[in-house]
Amino acid sequence: MTSKDEELELTYGPAAQFSEHKRGESITYRTANGQGITSGTIIWVCAAGMVGDRHMALHYVVAPDEPTGFIDVAFPDDVVVTDSDQARNSKRPGSPAFIPDRWEQSARPALLSVMVATLLRGRRSGPAT
Asked: Is residue 27 part of a domain?
């Protein structure tokens, strides 16, 4: 752990070992008061734990893109768009960055055939007795 990590841990609490979003990731999120949506960069991912006499779930400490002089706290449910979402959207047909994803191309037909087979098997067997 670097001295900067130690300083962040002393300031915001222990780092989460596992989280959907990571430090340095840009996210778009609902503000704490629910009044709007803004974007920023995650500077620390806090583990769930006690803050005073209150339990806090895992949360992100975020530096807003438009500096306000304050940090924001966002919970996983507040996040509406991430870097990976934006990258995925840039791969849409008609976009200059569109590159078909091989897994997606091969998985869809296989998944569809499994779904159809399951539906047909259910119709042939009739209702459960």
From this structure: yes
- Averaged pLDDT for residues 5-12: 91
Is residue 129 situated within a structural domain? no
The residue behind tokens 């990976």 is: 84
Angle at Cα 91 formed by Cα 88 and Cα 92, nearest 5°? Answer: 105
pTM of the model: 0.62
Q: What does the alpha-carbon distance between residue 77 and residue 68 come to, in Å, rounded to a whole number? A: 23
The verdict on residue 37 lying in a domain is yes
Using 50, 70 and 90 to split pLDDT, how confident is the model at 28? very high
Counted domains in the chain: 1
Q: Could you tell me the end-to-end alpha-carbon distance of the chain, in angstroms, rounded to an integer?
A: 60
Contact assessment for residue 40 and residue 65, using Cβ atoms and an 8 Å cutoff = yes
C-alpha distances in Å from residue 79, one per residue of 104, 109, 118: 24, 31, 35
pLDDT of amino acid 108:
53
Q: How far, in Å, CA of 73 to CA of 82, rounded?
A: 16
pLDDT 10s digits, 50-61 = 877 889 899 999
